[in-house]
């Protein structure tokens, strides 16, 4: 798979590039800032980009801005945003407009080749990838009346994987159950939580994340 | 009513005598002189129009001068010149008194030249009544000297009978010692030249002043200076006419016209002087009344505006010197720069016990410094003192506020810098370390070294813990989301990881100034922590924008003490209250 890497800290960038090459990806371009990344996307025609959220010029949210632009202008190109921040707002902002072919992972996650490869494959397949730390932070949120207590243990596992962006098929293989069972679980979960979204659509992840964040159910 | 303030100085016997004699002289001139000739020896006798102009000028000048002198205590003898100018003006009529006593005509002849000197003195000394610069005194002195030379010279050596150009008096000179027609003629010519030059100079200087003065000064001075221009031109025109035609005649159309223009200009000058005097007298009365009012019930901050109204100078302000820093502040404690000299602004110090307690900054021409100093120094003492003390306290308060806000801002900026440094430095290095450890562990595994593998696995876990700790640390120092996305998203993140249920409500999407967002965040964060230590079941955080303030309420926390939070909110001039169960912060955000 053709990949462009954008990261302003050289040490980290080189680490990521080496890792991707070792894992069998083809790194076709490298960039240090937002402009360089956008040029590279046009010139090097990648299938996905791996981008640091914080880059010059402002060192704030360039990665999210890049993702927004790339998803709008080059819908075929996937975007994996790497971040130091356990920040659900950023993850939700990323999937807000285009809930497919995007991912938000904590930086240290990518040094696990298996996770990196899995994330890029899923993005290439059109799925979303949300870091498990963020999902567990949302699931672990303190609530006065916890609506999640209505769920069974298995349903909570399914919900967490759905929130991480996994497809039903991926959830099934992760939990060693059939896809039909996963479908039944998601239908049940969405009913129990009162989520008015088609549990098979790709917008379900956004609905789940928003639900997990809502003030009082 | 406050203490009675006297606006006039006692007139006394000499003053009364002067008034009576001046008015009598005017009336006698009016009744006697014009009827005594057929209109050949005085302009006033030539036509009713000329007579009217003559008396308007003479009586106007006498009256205005006396009024000024009586209404303006301590403003110098300059205004008396106006009256003397009026008397000298009438001298021309007495010279032409055909059939009158020779002594009267002779004295009048000697007095007449001083009219020019009095006019120059009067115009240059306006509006204050004093010649202000050395150059002015020199110029006035020179004209007086020239007038004296002509006056004495004519008296001693001019025999009117031998003068080919005599017209108003061809008979009488009781002072004559030795008739010298040639020298007398030379004196006449010199006087004509002096009149020409002085007339043009008066007009030019008056025009120059009108052009370059501040608007306030122009408004004040134009009633005097506009007639002065006309009068100067008339004097110069008269001199030119005499050079062309040495024998003056009231019947001549040119001389008659020049005379009437000059007379009406002098009359207008008199009216102008009267206007200025009355205006400044009224200002002084207001000022004095104000001073006594202020003496009774001074409200700090009111002195400047009231003085500005009383003096008619809207640009007037009162400032107070600060003892230590040497700065100047207004009544609200705001620092004020004193005007530099020479831009039409004047600074009048109010001195008490040899110390400057206040400075009045005003238009140099519109307000008389001396007058202001006297009035304020005497009666408005309490007001000045009150206002000065308050200004000092307010200035200190302003300084303190500014320094508090700066301390908070510097602290925040430092925290952001630390967070940025952590992110770009330590966090990246630990990431790299964790990556290297992973590579090493994979290598050890394939090399079949279980001990090394175990060691590296544990090191990897340590590195991950360090990554997590660093992340928490960086977030605690300064949450990046606060800068990047604002207070709303930052509070959501706070709620995500809070140790107890946090309900958020009414979070605005707006962005606010950095210090405001940071302060709101710190308040919410510490209130939630405190609630958690208190064992609350949950907290509710509400935030609303109320016009120019951001209002943050945390229910379920409190009552504190939260000295640190109160300080922080106070540094932004906000309100912080903490009662049992409710913390509320109002932060100005406009």
Please outline the helices and strands.
The complex is a heterodimer of chains A (217) and B (590).
Chain A: E1 2-6, H1 10-22, E2 26-31, H2 34-44, E3 48-52, H3 62-73, E4 78-83, H4 88-97, E5 102-106, H5 113-124, E6 128-130, H6 132-139, H7 153-163, H8 168-175, H9 179-193, H10 204-213
Parallel strand pairs in A: 1-2, 1-3, 3-4, 4-5, 5-6
Chain B: H1 12-32, H2 48-71, H3 80-95, H4 102-111, H5 114-124, H6 134-157, H7 181-212, H8 215-244, H9 253-296, H10 303-311, E1 317-321, E2 328-329, E3 345-352, E4 355-363, H11 369-379, H12 381-424, H13 426-446, H14 450-477, H15 480-485, H16 487-496, E5 502-505, H17 514-534, E6 539-546, E7 549-555, H18 563-571, E8 575-579, E9 582-588
Helix pairs in contact in B: 1-2, 1-3, 2-3, 2-9, 3-4, 3-5, 4-6, 5-6, 5-7, 6-7, 7-8, 8-9, 9-10, 9-11, 12-14, 13-14, 16-17
What's the level 1 CATH class of the largest domain in chain B?
A: Mainly Alpha
Query: Strand percentage of chain B, roughly?
Result: 5-15%
Flag low-confidence runs of chain B: 1-10
What is the succession of H and E elements of chain B? HHHHHHHHHHEEEEHHHHHHEHEEHEE
Strand order of the largest sheet of chain B: 5-6-7-9-8
Explain what you see.
The complex is a heterodimer of chains A (217) and B (590). With 217 residues, chain A is an alpha/beta fold. Helix content of chain A is 51%, strand content 14%. Chain A has a 6-stranded parallel beta sheet with strand order 2-1-3-4-5-6, with helices on both faces. Chain A is globular, with a radius of gyration of 17 Å. With 590 residues, chain B is of the alpha+beta class. Chain B folds into 3 domains: 13-33 and 40-276, Rhopdopsin 7-helix transmembrane proteins (Up-down Bundle); 297-399, no CATH class; 485-590, Heat Shock Protein 90 (2-Layer Sandwich), CATH 3.30.565.10. In chain B, the strands form 2 sheets. Chain B has a 5-stranded mixed beta sheet with strand order 5-6-7-9-8. Chain B has a 4-stranded antiparallel beta sheet with strand order 2-1-4-3, covered by helices on one side. The longest helix of chain B is centred in the middle third of the chain and has 44 residues, at 253-296. Chain B starts with 11 loop residues before the first helix and ends with a strand. The model of chain B is unreliable at 1-10 (pLDDT under 50). At the A-B interface, helix 1 and helix 4 of A face helix 12, helix 13, helix 14, helix 15 and helix 16 of B.
